[in-house]
Design brief:
The complex is a heterodimer of chains A (300) and B (90). Helix content of chain A is 86%, strand content 0%. With 300 residues, chain A is an all-alpha fold. Chain B is built from four helices and no strands. Chain B has one domain (4-77). In chain B, α1 (4-16) packs across α2 (20-32), α1 packs antiparallel against α4 and α3 runs antiparallel to α4. Chain B has helices at 4-16, 20-32, 44-58, 62-77. The radius of gyration of chain B is 12 Å and the shape is globular. The chains are: A mainly alpha (300), B mainly alpha (90).
Chain lengths: 300, 90
């Protein structure tokens, strides 16, 4: 694997910044007390974050770079413009991983020195976490719709209805959990239940709808597009994209239920988080494999 | 009226889909050093050889590649243009 794209210089810059933000500040006393950690144990915990994050971010950047390279090979073709939109969405998701972590780290450091800023830092973090996938899924959705237009087909009505029903169900569960847990809501979100539902719940539901709709449109394209060998590359690409979308939605959903998760032990929380993140990294690698297979057709 | 280049692309569409046009143009321009619309029946043999070489680089699915080559061979042996039906386009 050749690391020749400048996107990997950005990866290195993000990683170095993240490591510095994690290791330079003094260990957080509240976290040490909550999880019964010494200062040394806290630093060991920091390193357990750095290595998996580095691997996951690399997989995401690699997946984007391969898809971007493929989109450049076919940029004069009709499907080239749509794949470029998919690549742009993937870039936002890939860059969003380190950006969220770095942004969160900076806000935490500020909040540590300016206690009155803590509420604002939590609120800002939550909105950034909602904004990035929204932008990413808008681009992915536009690319998926454009590909559907090329093969002159739309997803079957029952799939669209199932998608809408799923989003409504997820949204209702989300709102019910917020209402049931409103006593801890201010501690977690520093917002009223109404503000959480309108300013976070509604955008998240829209993100989930965009993501699920894009998934079924991509799947429809892969079923309709011609070419035995071409379709194999696309099936791999779409498997990766659909996995990224579904896992992103799952991670977003679980993060909005963080109040319930804090009742679990640190070990279970970390295990759940890293299983999901490594599956996400695997999905980016699958996108890279699909893009590589399709690129071979354009380079032969 | 369909020319020989269109026939080759139509056959290739079954295997390479939207990439068919680009693939065939690349083989003709790079290996036969001519414009695709100038493709003649006497060039087909050489073109098929280059396409087979390229397909071995793209995929290790021998059965599919053999089917593709068989379709191209059938075109090379036929005497009439445009026997493989209407070209599918977006």
């Amino acid at each position: 694997m050749k690391v020749k794209s400048k996107i990997f210089y950005w990866y290195a810059a993000f990683l170095i910044t993240f490591i510095l933000l994690l290791l330079l500040p003094a260990p957080d006393r509240a976290t040490m007390v909550r999880y019964h950690l010494s200062a040394l144990g806290f630093r060991v915990l920091d390193f357990t974050f750095i290595i998996p994050e580095a691997l996951i971010w690399f997989a995401a950047f690699y997946g984007y770079e391969k898809l971007h390279s493929y989109s450049q090979l076919i940029r004069t073709g009709k499907e080239g413009r749509q794949i470029a939109k998919l690549a742009r969405g993937l870039l936002i998701l890939a860059v969003g991983l380190p950006l969220e972590a770095i942004f969160s780290g900076i806000l935490s450091i500020i909040a540590t020195h300016v206690p009155s800023f803590k509420n604002a830092s939590v609120i800002t973090n939550n909105y950034v976490a909602a904004l990035l996938p929204l932008l990413a899924f808008i681009w992915i959705g536009r690319g998926a719709r454009g590909l559907g237009d090329l093969v002159k087909t739309r997803p079957q009505l029952w799939k669209v209805n199932a998608t809408t029903f799923t989003v409504i169900l997820l949204g209702i569960i989300f709102c019910c959990l917020i209402v049931l847990d409103h006593s801890q809501l201010r501690t977690t979100y520093h917002l009223s239940p109404e503000a959480v539902m309108i300013t976070l719940g509604v955008p998240y539901m829209y993100v989930w709808f965009l993501g699920l709709l894009a998934s079924i449109e991509l799947q429809t394209y892969s079923q309709k597009v011609t070419g035995v060998l071409y379709r194999r590359g696309w099936n791999l690409l779409i498997l990766g994209f659909v996995s990224i979308i579904l896992l992103s939605i799952l991670i977003q959903y679980l993060s909005t239920l963080s109040t319930w998760l804090t009742s679990l032990s640190l070990g279970w929380i970390l295990l759940m988080l890293y299983v999901l993140l490594f599956l996400l990294a695997g999905a980016f690698i699958i996108v890279a494999l699909g893009a590589t297979r399709l690129s071979k057709i354009e380079e032969a | 009226m369909a020319n020989l280049y269109d026939d080759v692309v139509t056959i290739t569409y079954d295997y390479l889909g939207p990439a068919a046009d680009r693939f065939v143009v690349r083989q003709i321009r790079n290996h036969l050093q001519k414009d695709p619309n100038e493709l003649q029946r006497k060039d087909l043999r050489q073109l098929i050889d280059w396409i087979q070489l390229a397909m071995r680089l793209i995929s290790d699915d021998s059965e599919t590649i053999d089917n593709y080559m068989a379709d191209l061979e059938a075109l090379a042996q036929s005497k009439e243009p445009g026997i493989h039906g209407k070209k599918i386009t977006y």
